[in-house]
Design goal:
Length: 378
C-alpha cells in the first residue's frame, strides 16, 4: 500500500475539471486498489517459489535493465558515511540538464528513481481527469488513481488530443511495445493541455537509446514534465536515481516534496561522471542494438512474432505464451508476461554467451504462430 504523507503538500499544480469525454477509445476507468500490487519484472523470489526444481542460478530476462552496467568507480568511505552534500546534488541536477538538453539545473528535480516521481506527481496535483496511454508501465495509472484522480487508460493516442484531460501520461518510447509518439505531436499536446491549466507527463525511462524521440529539450514549456530514469540505460537500477525535467516552479515543488538528501551519496558520486560519459553511451547504443537484433532473430526463428520494444527489451507474441513462460521457468529463465495481454512475452537481453546458449536451448522450437487478432487480447 502506498504510504500517504502525514501532511499533504499544498495543491501546487492547479487544474481545471471540464466534463469527462466519452469516446470508445477510452477504456474502463482505473480504480486504486491498495491490495493489488502491480506485477513487475525482476521478481526472482516469486519465480523460485513457482518453479521449485529450476536450476540455479536463474537467468533473469524479465527486466529492461542494461545487462552491461556503467563501470562503477571505487567510492571513498565518506561517500557512504556522510550525508550527500546539497551542492553535489545540485551538481547532479546540472549534469542531468546537460545530458538531457534541459535549460539548466533549476529545471531538474533529482529523485531516488523515476518511480518516486511517478508517485509524487499525482499527490502534487489537485484531483482531476487523467488519461494514461496504455497499455504501459502500470504504476502510472495506479499512482494517479491512488492519489484520488479519475484515471482512464486510453488506447488510441488520438483520444489524448480530443479529450478534456487535466493530465495526460505517455511513456515514450513505451514499455512494453516500444510505441513512439513523435516529439512535435507531444509538444503540441502539452501546449493544448497547458492552455487549460493541465499538463503532459512524458515518461522517457527508455529514451536514452533513441534520443531523437525525446522532448527533454523543450523542458520549460508550460505543462510539460519529462521523467528520466538513470538505472535502466546505465544498468544501475539498484542505485535508485531518476529525474524530473520541468518548468522551474514545478521542479522546485517536486524538490520540496522530496525533501533534503533525496538521493544517496553513492548515487551522487557515480551520476555526474556517468551522465557526461558520451563515449560510453555511444558504445552502449551499438552494443544494445546488436543484442536486440540478435534476440529478434532468435525469437523469430522459434515462431514468436516480435511486436516491438526498445533496445533494452523485446516484446514478442505467441498463442503458446503461457507454455513458453512455464517452459523457460522450469529451465530457470525468467521472462515477463502480462495479465492484460496473455499472448505477450517480454524478453530482456542475455548478457553472455552462456546466457544466449541457455535461452536458445530452452526456447521450445516451433511455437504456435502469431495471429494478428491477439494483440487485442485482454
Ligand atoms: C516506463 C517506466 N518508467 C519508469 C520506471 C521506473 O524506473 P526507475 O524508478 O528505476 O527510474 C519503469 C520501471 O520499470 C518503467 O518501466
Amino acid at each position: 500500500m502506498l504510504a500517504r504523507p502525514h501532511r499533504r503538500p499544498p495543491i501546487l499544480f492547479p487544474v481545471t475539471t471540464p466534463p469527462m469525454p466519452t469516446t470508445p477509445a477510452v477504456t474502463a476507468a482505473v480504480t486504486a486498489d491498495p491490495t493489488v500490487v502491480a506485477d513487475h519484472g525482476g521478481n526472482l523470489g516469486a519465480a523460485r517459489r513457482r518453479f521449485r526444481d529450476a536450476p540455479e542460478p536463474w537467468l533473469d530476462l524479465s527486466t529492461g535493465i542494461n545487462p552491461w552496467p556503467y563501470p562503477v568507480p571505487p567510492l571513498a568511505a565518506e561517500v557512504w558515511q556522510r550525508l550527500p552534500d546539497p551542492a553535489a546534488i545540485d551538481g547532479v541536477a546540472a549534469a542531468a540538464a546537460r545530458a538531457y538538453g534541459a535549460p539548466g539545473p533549476d529545471h531538474v528535480a533529482v529523485a531516488p528513481g523515476s518511480q518516486a516521481l511517478i508517485q509524487w506527481l499525482p499527490r502534487l496535483c489537485s484531483p482531476g481527469r487523467v488519461a494514461v496511454l496504455g497499455p504501459t508501465y502500470a504504476e502510472h495509472a495506479h499512482c494517479w488513481a491512488a492519489a484520488g484522480h479519475r484515471v482512464n487508460l486510453v488506447t488510441d493516442a488520438g483520444t489524448l488530443y480530443h479529450g478534456c484531460w487535466d493530465t495526460v501520461v505517455v511513456a515514450n518510447p513505451n514499455n512494453p511495445d516500444g510505441r513512439v509518439i513523435a516529439p512535435d505531436r507531444l509538444i503540441a499536446l502539452a501546449t493544448g493541455l497547458a492552455a487549460g491549466g493541465g499538463r503532459l507527463v512524458v515518461d522517457e525511462a527508455f529514451a536514452d537509446l533513441v534520443p531523437a524521440v525525446s522532448v527533454a529539450a523543450a523542458t520549460g514549456q508550460p505543462g510539460l514534465i519529462v521523467l528520466r530514469s538513470f538505472g535502466k540505460v546505465f544498468g544501475l537500477a539498484g542505485l535508485r536515481l531518476g529525474f524530473a525535467l520541468a518548468a522551474p516552479d514545478q521542479a522546485h515543488r517536486l524538490r520540496e516534496a522530496l525533501g533534503p538528501w533525496p538521493v544517496s551519496g553513492p548515487a551522487v558520486a557515480i551520476a555526474g561522471a556517468a551522465l557526461a560519459d558520451h563515449a560510453w553511451l555511444a558504445e552502449t547504443r551499438v552494443r544494445l542494438a546488436t543484442a536486440a537484433d540478435r534476440l529478434d532473430d532468435l525469437l523469430h526463428a522459434r515462431g514468436l512474432a516480435v511486436l516491438g520494444g526498445t533496445p533494452l527489451f523485446r516484446l514478442a507474441a505467441t498463442r503458446d505464451a503461457e507454455a513458453v513462460f512455464d517452459h523457460l521457468g522450469r529451465a530457470g529463465i525468467l521472462i515477463r508476461r502480462f495479465a492484460s495481454h496473455p499472448g505477450w512475452l517480454r524478453f530482456g537481453l542475455p548478457v553472455s554467451d552462456t546466457a544466449w546458449d541457455r535461452l536458445a536451448r530452452a526456447l521450445p522450437p516451433g511455437v504456435t504462430p502469431w495471429r494478428h487478432d491477439m494483440s487485442h487480447q485482454s
